[in-house]
Known about the structure:
15% strand
Amino acid sequence: xxxxxxxxxxxxxxxxxxxxxxxxxxxxxxxxxxxxxxxxxxxxxxxxxxxxxxxxxxxxxxxxxxxxxxxxxxxxxxxxxxxxxxxxxxxxxxxxxxxxxxxxxxxxxxxxxxxxxxxxxxxxxxxxxxxxxxxxxxxxxxxxxxxxxxxxxxxxxxxxxxxxxxxxxxxxxxxxxxxxxxxxxxxxxxxxxxxxxxxxxxxxxxxxxxxxxxxxxxxxxxxxxxxxxxxxxxxxxxxxxxxxxxxxxxxxxxxxxxxxxxxxxxxxxxxxxxxxxxxxxxxxxxxxxxxxxxxxxxxxxxxxxxxxxxxxxxxxx
Length: 317
Ligand code: NAD
Ligand code: AKB
């Protein structure tokens, strides 16, 4: 039976992942943790164990892992791209020293470690269209530097010490429970909230900027499926390209207009986040994930838009 520790569990992914893992593996088998407690997460606190954990604190991590007999870590604690450019030292410290601390514990205690990477692990010299699984990775944001270094470090721990490390390169994730934590693709979440609240949105990302995106249920499905995948079939490990759609702001606008015809979109471009977006791929080739562990998303743009708008119109009443 899996005993799973989720770090950074109060973030955009963790707050939904923890509930789904508890549904699948049992409430007491999924330990949620975060550096600090936050309001608005009663469903996480009330449905199973919660512990305070800063992933850079190895003693505290060891204590929790021993207390609950953890055999699997899902490391979601990180500093994302936009905040990472404002606070590069902290981004390096959390994303690299935190990951290294957990990898060392995984090596000592023979634990599985799932560590997500991102489309940020690519850069301007990467082929932008249908970006291959194995290609040039020279990112130009601090977040991207930590993501590609994290991929390589996780592969090293697998090859050198046999640690069962696995990961995906998430595209921008769109969700309606917890707001995103300071990334470049956040516009693609905010646009839906503002479509419900004001029937208009001002995008900080320029018209025509294509990036890969995915709806949260497909992201959660990818974590569980890769965690449970037959290791003998995995040629790659850290990390698999996955995607559900390649969209620009005007594509999301057109999709929202199918349900809210009066919706309008205008632009006030943020140069920092635009430069990050311009350095990322337009679209990923996710064929390795399909071939090695059968991954396929369930949501395309319109199916996601309908679900986002239905859910948010109830939530924001
Ligand atoms: P988030 O910013 O929403 O949540 C991160 C959580 O980690 C927060 O609750 C924060 O309080 C916590 N945290 C920060 N520093 C910590 C520390 N030192 N110790 C413990 N907790 C700490 O992030 P997310 O969107 O849930 O992303 C989770 C992972 O997925 C990250 O590795 C991120 O790079 C990756 N990812 C996310 C996306 C996306 O669109 N959400 C896309 C690609 C990759
Ligand atoms: C960000 O924009 O920083 C994240 C990501 C794609 O890694 N959403």
